[in-house]
Each structure stands twice: as C-alpha cells, then as structure tokens.
Automatic annotation (TrEMBL), chain A:
It is a peripheral membrane protein. Pfam families: ABC_tran. This is ABC-type polar-amino-acid transporter. It catalyses: a polar amino acid(out) + ATP + H2O = a polar amino acid(in) + ADP + phosphate + H(+).
Automatic annotation (TrEMBL), chain B:
The chain crosses the membrane at residues 12-33, 53-79, 100-121, 231-249. It is found in: Cell membrane. The lineage of its organism: Bacteria, Bacillati, Actinomycetota, Actinomycetes, Pseudonocardiales. This is Polar amino acid transport system permease protein. One of its GO terms (biological process) is amino acid transport. SUPFAM superfamilies: MetI-like (SSF161098). It comes from Prauserella rugosa.
C-alpha cells in the first residue's frame, strides 16, 4: 500500500554498472516511497538482479548515486555495515547459515550486529518465525527444511533485524511450484503491513496484485514504469508486450514473439 | 570358446589371489624366522621398556604433537586468511612461507630451530617450546592450504547473507565462513595430525633429557641398551596406538560429512 506522501526511502540516480566490458546497468533512476511495493520484471540478463544488489551494495556501481534510508551507499566513506542494518535481503538460494539452527540463524546477527541480549533476540526471532508460520521449526537445522520453509526462515531472519526496506531477489525461482504459494503469501502479508519492498520476480500475478509500481527492465535500462494495471495490463512499449506475452503464454510464445 | 566378461574377471581375480598366496608362502619359507624373532620380537628386551615407553615416551609424543598441532592451526589460519586477502603483500608473504615450509624437510627446520636460533640470538628455549614451534612451523604450511581450500568451498552466498545482515567482512568470516570451513576440512585435518605425530620423531635432533624422550628416541635408546631391535619395533607399535584411532576418526567424520551432504541434497532437490 502506498503511503501517500512522497518521502523517498530509496533514491537511485544515474546508476551505471559494468562487469568488465559488459555494461549491465546503463543509467537507472528509481525512487521508492516509504511503504511502496515495487516489483522489477524483465528478461534474464536485463540487469534487474544487479540493480537490486546495488541497493545494498553487494554490487558496487561504477557511477551514479544510491541513497537508502538516509545513507548514501555510493559515498566511499559510508559505514556500509551500519547502512545495511536497515536493508533486509532475501536471496534466490536462501543462503541460510548451514551450521546454525533456525533460531540461531535469526539471532546471530541481532546479537553480534545490533548487540541485543540473548533473551530479547530470541523473543524477536520467535515473533518472526511465528509470522512466517514456522514457530515449530526453531530447533531444526536448515537442511531439514523444504525449500519453501528455508525461504520463509530467510525472510524471518531479515525481518528480525527490523529493516526499513526489504529486497527480494527472485525469492521463488528456486522453489518447486507447489511451494511458491507459501512464500508469496508471507510476502503479501508483509506488503499489507506497510513494509517497503523491492522485489525482482517472474511471478506476474504477484506483481499485478501486490505491487504499487512495476518496473520493466530490458538491456540495462528501465523501459517502462507505472502501476501494474498499466505496465502489465496495458503495456505501451513493444519490448514490454513481447516479454509479457512470452511469460504469460509461454506455450504460444513464438506466435507473438 | 571366448570367456564371458564375468568369467574373465573371476579368472583374473583368482590369479591375483594365487600370486599373493605364493608371495606370502615364499616369504614364510625363505625368511630366517629364528634370527628375525631374536632381533625384533625379543619379549625380554621389550619388557624392559615398560612402563617408561608408555608413561614417558608415548605421553611426550602426544604432548609434542598436540602443542605443535595447536600452534600449526593458529599460524595456518592466519596464513590461509592472508592467502585469501585482497591485500597483495599479505598474499605474497603467505605464498612464500607456505612454499618454503612445505618444501624443506622437517629435519632442516628442527636443526635450524635447535641450533641456528640459539647461535644467532643467544636464545635458548626449553625442549617443549622448541618442539612445538618446529612442528607448528612445519604443520602450519599444510594446514594453511587445507584451510584455504575449506574456506573457498563455503558458498559465496553465505558471506553475502552475512554481509547483508550488517556483519563486517571479518565478522562474517569468523561467525559464518570458518565454522563451516572446519566441518568441510575435518577429515583432511585429521590426516595432518597423523603426519605431525610421525614428524614428532625428529625432536631427538634437539638433544633430549631422559624425561623428554618421545617414542622414536626412547626406542633407539632401548635398542642400544638391550642390543636388540625389539624396542624400536615396540615404539613403532605405540605410534599405531595414536594414529589408528585418528584414522578411524577421520573416516568417521568423512562419512558423517558425506551423509549430511546427501541428506541436504535430498531435501532441497
């Protein structure tokens, strides 16, 4: 749900990123308001994951500025570890810490980064496990969980840091189809609670129903941006139409593509 | 008529067993058991070795090895992190160190520490410190390479997850990467420990007091005293008391690590 006011929590301007000679991002400008849900869609190789990873500086931009929650990440003297405390990240491959139990996955950064004591970090961890519907898995090890459960634990781990923004990098792409729904359900609930979210996804129905804004990226630029009813419902750019017809109707893609 | 592959394999294996039995029979027949038994299996000579071979020699071997391994682990960890550092000079220093100590015979390290250092600096450490440092220097080069491989085997996503939770690079390394690296390298690390146990036999080069004897030295002194090879054979058997259980431990850890990997795959696949 949009917050109504125009206080930007993420401001990206003139962002360029190249891997060697390969230009992946060619000048991106994006503003995200507090409470806004932005879905980034586009073909693979379009730069959408790279863009998302620039928002917590897992990738370092070549030029341009990235402002998140008052921190200018692109300032060489920024305290990046402090800035990242307010930015939650959920990965395609879950990346739970394999040597720690579910509960310890949720408490380790609270204790070591935020300095919370054992009791408080455990209380917050259990709250968030409850929220993603996995309260009974606190003592399990990550490899005892299904992919969908692991991803929900990963979301709870990020939430335990009480971030101001959540980034999702294709959170359901590594899941069996029947497990996707649980994860999307948790994400929808988060959106309803007013969390600011940037989501790179191929789930068009999720983007259509949950996003306030959809960005369509191709070839390292934002081709089209707007509410889902426009970008997915009535795309104006040819590239957007081609992509959507391939995604929404893969069996007949050759006819339109 | 051509043999089936199964028959051929059976015949081949039969021939192998036949050769093995013949070789054993030849050894049994031609060896002079009487003289051999006298020299190596003289129970009287062996019995003179007790209890010192256990209470002094075996215990000292374990102490020297444990001290050396602990130091080797500490230096090895620093070297492994240096070798993976983004700072050039750290990498170069670590590379030179590892290549040097992995390449020179342990014998040379013991001589350098036992005689070179006292000459150069007028410093005289006690035997236990010198032994620990020498074994630590030798062991650290191997341990560093093993640790480096283990650290690199931890998926990059683990660091990314830790960093995006606000951990610094070093905090992520020590909280997330190294504990997982150790799980991966426990089996090869046990092998390093076995190798170090045997390298501890070189400590005699330092010149030892009777109370400082480790197994090899104790056995050789016993040889001189009894005029029999039996004490050194007994000392050799004592090494097995240490190394065989370690070997079992290593294989057990390997199996457990393999099982965890398999189970992990089953669930996520």
């Amino acid at each position: 749900m949009s917050a109504g006011t125009d206080d930007a929590i993420v401001e990206i301007s003139g962002l360029h990123k190249a891997f060697g000679k390969l230009e992946v991002l060619k000048g991106i400008d994006v503003r995200v308001r507090r409470g806004e849900v932005v879905c980034i869609i586009g073909p693979s190789g379009s730069g959408k994951s790279t863009l998302l990873r620039c928002v917590n500086l897992l990738e370092e931009p070549n030029s341009g500025t990235v402002l998140v929650n008052g921190y200018e990440l692109t300032d060489p003297d920024v305290d990046i570890d402090r800035a990242r405390r307010s930015i939650g990240m959920v990965f395609q491959g879950f990346n739970l810490f394999g040597h720690l139990s579910v509960l310890d996955n949720l408490t380790v950064a609270q204790r070591k980064v935020l300095g919370r004591d054992a009791a408080e970090s455990e209380r917050i961890a259990r709250e968030n496990l409850e929220k993603v519907g996995l309260a009974e898995k606190a003592k399990s090890m990550p490899d005892q969980l299904s992919g969908g459960q692991q991803q929900r634990v990963a979301i709870a781990r990020a939430l335990s840091m009480q971030p101001a923004v959540m980034l999702f990098d294709e959170p359901t792409s590594a899941l069996d189809p029947e497990l996707v729904g649980d994860v999307l359900g948790v994400m929808r609930q988060l959106a309803d609670e007013g969390m600011t979210m940037l989501v790179v996804t191929h789930e068009m129905q999720f983007a259509r129903e949950v996003a306030d804004t959809v960005l369509f990226m191709d070839g390292g630029v934002v081709v089209e941006a707007g509410p889902p009813s426009k970008v997915i419902g009535e795309p104006s750019e040819e590239r957007t139409k081609t992509f959507l017809s391939r995604v929404l109707n893969p069996v007949h893609a050759t006819e339109t593509g | 008529m051509p043999m089936s592959p199964r028959k051929r394999a059976q015949a081949f294996r039969g021939a192998q067993y036949g050769i093995l039995v013949l070789a054993l029979a030849a050894v049994a027949f031609f060896a002079n058991w009487e003289k051999l038994g006298d020299a190596f299996f003289n129970l009287d000579a062996m019995s003179t070795q007790f209890p010192g071979i256990i209470t002094t020699a075996l215990v000292n071997t374990i102490i020297y090895t444990a001290l050396g391994f602990a130091l080797g682990l500490a230096i090895g960890l620093v070297l492994a992190l240096m070798k993976l550092s983004s700072v050039g000079p750290y990498r170069w220093i670590a590379t030179v160190y590892i290549e040097f100590f992995r390449g020179v015979p342990a014998l040379l390290v013991f001589i350098a520490l036992g005689f070179g250092v006292p000459l150069a600096f007028q410093l005289q450490f006690d035997t236990y410190s010198t032994a620990a440092i020498a074994l630590g220097l030798v062991g650290s080069a191997y341990i560093a390479e093993t640790l480096r491989a283990g650290i690199q085997a931890v998926p990059k996503g683990q660091v990314e997850a830790a960093r995006s939770l606000g951990m610094s690079q070093s905090r992520a390394t020590f909280t997330v990467v190294i504990p997982q690296a150790f799980r991966i390298i426990l089996p090869p690390l046990t092998n390093e420990l076995i190798l170090l146990t045997k390298d501890s036999s070189l400590i005699y080069l330092l010149g030892l007091l009777g109370s400082e004897y480790e197994l090899a030295k104790f056995g050789r002194e016993g040889m001189n005293a009894t005029n029999s090879m039996s004490p050194i054979l007994l000392a050799g058997l004592c090494y097995l008391i240490i190394t065989v259980p370690l070997g079992y431990l290593s294989r057990y850890l390997e199996r457990r690590a393999g099982r965890q990997r398999d189970e992990g795959l089953e669930v996520t696949a």
